[in-house]
């Protein structure tokens, strides 16, 4: 027989559940507020004690209401936080299983795709999904089997909340670890984020790809274009993360394709290099400075990346020379329309000049003794003294011919 104390606890539970069942939205919102304040951080035994061993009865009501109302944002944030108290409860694995049995993962993923819902509500969904993923490999697989990677990467690319995006990054990183069946799916999902218009999403995707590279091993060839595409970004933090990923990829089979494409970015088509501002387009008589297109931003970033990669590995530096990088860097140095291209290309070119006598000979022949000495003395600023004639000579240079490379190889040998 149950004791008087136990009977009283059961009566209170039944009264509470009856109050919930008969309450409308405002009253339920108040109940949720009280529940969150009183139970946040509690363990499974503590929740069971609070609910007279019937906590699952309240969780079932929460999940049922979520299933019926999530599309209309009815107390959604409080509802998700309340469910989170159950899912995060220590020793509360059965709460997680009960939530999953009613299709909880699918509901959370669907919420992420609803445009009319608030970012803060979607962030709570991501937090709940993280709790699911933290439960182990089979739960990570469940999220991925439910098209979770697509939903999460879409949300990462379109979210307006930096905090929510960071939460998504943590979750995707979790899904990419200890989940061999779906780690490549996560990796490719992150690659799909790179062409998006959100710099923060690009940065976070690149960071996660770097971390995942050792787990995944070889990188697919489809990675080349989107990664190099991020070098167009005007945001230096995105460029930085892209270069970090390029460094990680130098040990992979995709290296030759990446280096070839990087060198090609140093010589963009000149006729496509500029765009006029809107005022000029509307009125040709309006004086308005030309703005460099993304190809010049990409040229400058490629020149910077080439210097970083060459300094990391002598083998990579020699491969770049075979790909005619010296010619490309000199073209970029001669780009009077974009100082950043000149600066980064000059700094990278200095490394090749000081490392390979053949390159020093070729560059000195093009620049002439006086300008070459200025270059060596101050590679970061010397190009400001360059006149248009000399710049054109650099752009038109023909170093790196097969004969020149052969000379370099014989000299090095």
Automatic annotation (TrEMBL):
InterPro entries from the UniProt entry: ARM-like, ARM-type_fold, DUF5578
Pfam families membership: DUF5578
SUPFAM superfamilies in alphabetical order: ARM repeat
Protein name, as recorded: ARMD1 protein
């Amino acid at each position: 027989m149950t004791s008087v104390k136990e009977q009283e606890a059961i009566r209170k539970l039944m009264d509470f559940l009856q109050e919930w069942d008969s309450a409308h939205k405002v009253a339920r919102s108040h109940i949720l507020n009280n529940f969150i304040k009183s139970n946040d951080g509690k363990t499974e035994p503590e929740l069971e004690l609070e609910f007279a061993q019937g906590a699952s009865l309240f969780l079932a009501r929460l999940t049922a209401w979520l299933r019926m109302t999530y599309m209309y944002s009815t107390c959604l944030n409080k509802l998700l936080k309340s469910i989170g108290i159950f899912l995060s409860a220590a020793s509360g694995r059965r709460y997680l299983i009960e939530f999953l049995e009613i299709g909880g993962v699918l509901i959370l993923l669907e919420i992420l795709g609803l445009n009319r819902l608030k970012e803060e509500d979607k962030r709570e969904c991501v937090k709940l999904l993280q709790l699911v993923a933290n439960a182990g490999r089979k739960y990570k697989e469940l999220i991925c089997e439910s098209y979770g990677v697509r939903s999460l990467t879409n949300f990462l690319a379109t979210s307006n909340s930096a905090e929510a995006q960071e939460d998504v990054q943590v979750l995707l990183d979790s899904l990419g670890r200890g989940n061999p069946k779906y780690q490549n799916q996560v990796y490719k999902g992150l690659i799909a984020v790179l062409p998006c218009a959100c710099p923060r999403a690009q940065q976070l995707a690149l960071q996660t790809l770097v971390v995942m590279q050792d787990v995944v091993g070889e990188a697919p060839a489809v990675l080349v274009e989107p990664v190099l595409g991020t070098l167009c970004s005007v945001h230096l933090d995105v460029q930085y993360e892209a270069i970090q990923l390029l460094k990680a990829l130098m040990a992979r089979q995709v290296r030759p394709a990446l280096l070839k494409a990087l060198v090609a970015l140093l010589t963009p088509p000149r006729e496509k290099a500029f765009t006029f501002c809107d005022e000029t387009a509307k009125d040709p008589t309006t004086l308005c400075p030309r703005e460099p297109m993304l190809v010049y931003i990409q040229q400058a970033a490629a020149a910077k990346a080439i210097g970083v990669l060459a300094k990391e590995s002598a083998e990579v530096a020699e491969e770049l020379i075979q790909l005619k990088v010296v010619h490309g860097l000199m073209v970029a140095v001669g780009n009077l329309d974009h100082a950043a291209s000149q600066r980064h290309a000059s700094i990278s070119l200095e490394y090749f000049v000081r490392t390979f006598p053949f390159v020093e000979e070729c560059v000195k022949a093009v620049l002439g003794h006086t300008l070459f000495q200025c270059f060596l003395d101050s590679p970061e600023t010397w190009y400001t003294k360059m006149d248009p004639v000399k710049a054109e000579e650099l752009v038109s240079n023909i170093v790196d011919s097969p004969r020149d490379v052969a000379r370099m190889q014989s000299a090095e040998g």
